[in-house]
């Protein structure tokens, strides 16, 4: 499998509970290298633009409020098959369905406040990385 990059967010529920280090330890243990990382506090409009694909979903407004409610940590993770590997380490969207040992099983509070985001395909990974980082900030 090829070396790949994916985009990750440690969400407000996790930064508020000081879980950044514990979550990063899980990424690194899975062979994902953190090649870029920054802590930022999104506005609701910035969160809305990031999640524009969900604009018609009933949870969209609540999701944007949540993502702007406290700082996030935006990251780029690199590794063999990084997109699929990251989603495996995150676990299912709803923590009630997440496998034991995954980030969401251990840390998520609800289907909405579920601690992490990870890109779902190569095209979205490229778009999401470019939304948050310049090429100079990616240090492999
Ligand atoms: P993500 O995009 O954050 O990595 O999560 P995902 O692919 O597992 O889930 P997705 O379907 O893309 O949904 C994006 C985020 O919206 C929130 N959500 N809330 N209240 C609800 O029913 C509901 N469903 C989704 C979650 O924060 C989810 O991660
Ligand atoms: Mg998604």
UniProtKB/TrEMBL annotation:
PROSITE patterns: NDPK, NDPK_LIKE. Keywords: ATP-binding, Cytoplasm, Kinase, Magnesium, Metal-binding, Nucleotide metabolism, Nucleotide-binding, Phosphoprotein, Transferase. GO terms for biological process: CTP biosynthetic process; GTP biosynthetic process; UTP biosynthetic process. Its cofactor is Mg(2+). One of its GO terms (molecular function) is metal ion binding. Its main location: cytoplasm. Residues 3-140 form the Nucleoside diphosphate kinase-like domain. ATP binds at residues 11, 59, 87, 93, 104, 114. SUPFAM superfamilies: Nucleoside diphosphate kinase, NDK. It is an enzyme of class 2 (transferase). Belongs to the NDK family. Homotetramer. This is Nucleoside diphosphate kinase. It comes from Harenicola maris.
């Amino acid at each position: 499998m090829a070396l790949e990059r994916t985009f990750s967010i440690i969400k407000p529920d996790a930064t508020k509970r000081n879980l950044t280090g514990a979550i990063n330890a899980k990424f690194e243990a899975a062979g994902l290298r953190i090649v870029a990382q920054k802590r930022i506090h999104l506005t609701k409009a910035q969160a809305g633009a990031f999640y524009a694909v969900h604009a018609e979903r009933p949870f969209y407004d609540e999701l944007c409020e949540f993502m702007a409610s406290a700082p996030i940590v935006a990251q780029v993770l690199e590794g063999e098959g990084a997109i699929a590997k990251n989603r495996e380490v995150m676990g299912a969207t709803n923590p009630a369905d997440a496998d034991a040992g995954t980030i969401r099983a251990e840390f998520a509070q609800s289907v909405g406040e579920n601690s992490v985001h990870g890109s779902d395909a190569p095209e979205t990974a490229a778009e999401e990385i470019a939304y948050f980082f310049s090429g100079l900030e990616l240090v492999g």
